[in-house]
Amino acid sequence: MRILFVTPYYIPAYGFGGPVKVVADLARSLRKQGHEVTIATTDALDLHRRIAVKEDVIEGTTVHYFPNITTEAALRWNIYWPRGFRSWLAGHIHDFDVIHCHDFFTGLNIVVSDSACKAKVPYIVHPHGALIPIRQHARFTLSKRLWLRFFSKVLRRAAFVVASTEKEREEILANQHVPSSRVVVLPNGLDVEEVGRPLRDERILTHYGIQPNEPVVLYFGRLQFMKGLDISLRSLALIRELPWKYLIVGRDDGERSRLEKLAQQLGIADRILFLGPQFGKNLDRTLGLSALFLFNSRSESFPIAVLQACAAGLPAVLSPECRIPEVQSAQAGIVLTENTPEKTAQALRELLMDPERRLAMSQAGQRLVKEAFVDSELRERFWLSSANSINIARLIPQMFYYFWAVAQLWRSSPLFKGGL
């Protein structure tokens, strides 16, 4: 099949977090299955920089970068209206069998919806958690309400809306006017080659001023209020009698100054390191020196960071809002009963004081990821299952069945006749 991915950000804009990796992994796997994948995205790199090229080939996939009106409007207010995208899509839409839109509140999706319906090409919307109610109220609340009021057609016209978990699916159905048959659950995947404990580099510990007896607690992801880093800081302050260092890795979305002030107030500022965004080998080195992964997120659909942490052998302490209870059942970490500093501190104290338990969880996390690939029976059943468990990366090798089904359903759909 000829597949077009439309996403507001893509490689090398890793600072935008999990969706960039999800799209890249999915494109790579579909290409291995023999499908032709093209990516249309914007030139957003960070708040002050744009991606310089207009077109590139990344791992065999052609990527078209369209310039945002302003990078500040795109990043600060989520206004992704790239110049030239509408005319390019109009001229190339018949080159594709299906279009897969990532994220939701972007002008790109409006353009796809209008163009795809006129051209009778099916499209899929993959919100990556954007339609979860708490996220709609976290940032840009008014603009999101207006967007849904005037552009809800983007959902109604879609052949499918993709949720990452069964809980996200339920929330989409409860709050959006989309038939249940068109909201499907497909969990995020992870490349099997990423499973393995990165080597520990003692030189990095020295560089960061970390003592050998100080276990490293790690967070990596975007610095946002929704990620619950303030809860993490308050929980760490409750166990200040124990040795530890807390490394925060990721792009600042306006939260860092507030977190730095809070760390000062809690008296733990000297034990917190903000490392900025890290990717590839740099992130691997940080994973290698870390003892556990802490994630007090207030809301997630299916966090790719948790999968990466488990693959790297890090025991995980997660809020229930991360929606991955399998981490607890597989004994790869602790899923909190409540996302509070007190509950988090209790879990951290248990793990920091028990290296043998951390080692067992490390092995269990890697085993959890690996078994998702080698369990052939489950892999064969995945396309027919409700997919409401972790199913790490069973999505990726089976996705081509999904796209084929989309094309078949769309041809018989009343939407195809312009009903909506």
General description of the model:
- The protein is an alpha/beta fold and 420 residues long.
- 42% of the residues lie in helices and 15% in strands.
- The protein has 18 helices and 14 strands.
- The strands form two sheets. The chain has an eight-stranded mixed β-sheet with strand order 3-4-2-1-5-6-7-8, sandwiched between helices. A six-stranded parallel β-sheet has the order 11-10-9-12-13-14, with helices on both faces.
- β13, α14 and β14 form a beta-alpha-beta unit.
- α13 crosses α16.
- The longest helix is centred in the last third of the chain and has 20 residues.
- The radius of gyration is 21 Å and the shape is globular.
- The two termini are 26 Å apart.
- The C terminus is likely disordered.
Give the structural class: alpha/beta
Strand content of the residues, in percent? Answer: 15-25%
Share of helical residues:
40-55%
Helix count equals: 18
Across the major sheet, the strand order is 3-4-2-1-5-6-7-8
**C-alpha geometry:** globular
| Number of strand segments | 14
Distance between the termini: 26 Å
Based on CA atoms alone, the radius of gyration comes out at 21 Å
What is the arithmetic mean of pLDDT?
82
Residue windows where pLDDT falls under 50 for at least 5 positions: 373-401, 416-420
Most strands sheet: 8 strands, mixed
